[in-house]
User: What shape does this take?
Amino acid sequence: MPSQTEVVQNENRNREIIVELEETARSQIKTIMINKLYKQVKINGDQVSFKALHNAAELGSALAQYNLGLCYENGLGIEINLNKAFSWYFEAAKQGHSNAQYRLAKCYAEGSKEIEKNLPQAFFWLTQAANQDNANAQYGLGWCYENGEGIDINLKEAIVWYSRSAKQENPDAQYNLGLCYEKGIGVVEADLQKAFFWYKKAAKQEHIKGQYNLGLCYENGLGIAIDLKKAINWYTKAANNGYADAQYKLGTFYINGNGVEKDLKEAVDWYIKAADQGHAKAQYNLGYCYKNSLGVKKDLETAIFWYTQSANQEYAKAQYSLGFCYQNGLGVKKDRRHAVFLFTKAANQGFAEAQYNLGICYQNGLGIKEDLETAVVWYTKAAKQGHAEAQSNLGWCYEDAKGVEQDLEQACFWYTKAANQGHAGARAVLLKKYQPQFTSYLEDKQKKMKKEKWKDMEVTEAVERNEDMETYEEEENLVISKLKLS
Assistant: This one.
């Protein structure tokens, strides 16, 4: 038998349990009621519900304060007022409401006319919310550590917070974690399989960039075996969600029949969707389709329009193609000066075809004053990128001393480069005319060098002269061997 004291103690404990249960029940009922009020305001702007929500907020309910902040931020049941939204988020955040802390951090991070941007404060409130396992805040904290927003960059710490958020199924964190593993950011080394894993997690939650990157993985065998059907499937999902890069990708798949049946009209449809969003490559490809009647009726004026849109975004191929149209009067009044302007813009970005054509312009005085030396400069730039026509023209310049001192070795070198790419003109020059002349020239030069008397017997000078000699011999052998092979 329990003693009288034990009976009393048990009764007191039972009363405490009952009180706690009642308080929990009241709290749960209050939460349900406040959420219901907010839902009514959100759905139809119900003013009775808004006033009740406002009263609950003034009485100190953190949940009501947070929901009232959402109303003022988004104009639900009341005109948008970012100051009041900020104030109510702040009241709820002080009470430890993690969602309010996260929204408050966003207010500080983004700033506005009403709220001064304050990255350290944003970082502070993100930390408060993240420590309560708020997945959005954990993602935001990872972003801060990765990009040095409100705190010094710390890539390892970024991975920690991205991982915590990703494990709570936050798609943005999953996508960023995939990027980090793909690029080797903040991790010991790049891991494409882990990158694929996280991209897939994000993609399955309709994360558009995750879907696109998952398509890239399947297309290029990044962390998974190449599977073009699956790549196209994920590109299509991202494209249907409005992602321009994916729309452009699908256009290229359909125009080339890569992984799908070739369908030029379908390609054009996807290019249009991406081009309308300002995608420079899609705009260029769309212009190309209109110029060459691919999947659409030939329309040079429309081609010029899309080339121009792309060229205005500094896309080199579009600048070159637009220049070509102005050079030849295709869909636009012929304007060789403007063509040179566009060729120059593309050439300065390293586009070999533009560099070659710019050389042609300077050589022949097309749209600009004739300048053979500058022509050689541009031919050289294009030739070094493997442009066969430029290599052949550069060989001619060295052979006939056009814009540069005559140098038969260099001439033969560049003719050979062009010939080895199948350039018929360069090959003909080498076989019928130039090789015997070059051989004779080389032999005379070597004999002359051997007969020279050294005035200064310094080792460095002798070495330099010997190196020159070896270079000539090597070039001769190179030319002859390539001619035999080609």
